[in-house]
């Protein structure tokens, strides 16, 4: 992934409220367009870098469960 994409997405989301970011995520998922996947990846990467170990483990457990179905 090109770092310009990361920077552009980060700039677009900077200062957004939790509600705003939720709408971005839900819109990207609902639209189902593959070109939106890098944006979701950038959101996840930013979260991962700031999350504590227990939050990361909880996320990993949730993702594992989601893919097990």
TrEMBL record:
Induction annotation: Expressed only in the forespore compartment of sporulating cells.
Alphabetical UniProt keywords: Sporulation
Record-linked Pfam families: SSPI
Subcellular location(s) of the protein: Spore core
Domain of life: Bacteria
Sequence similarity: Belongs to the SspI family.
Protein name, as recorded: Small, acid-soluble spore protein I
Name of the encoding gene: sspI
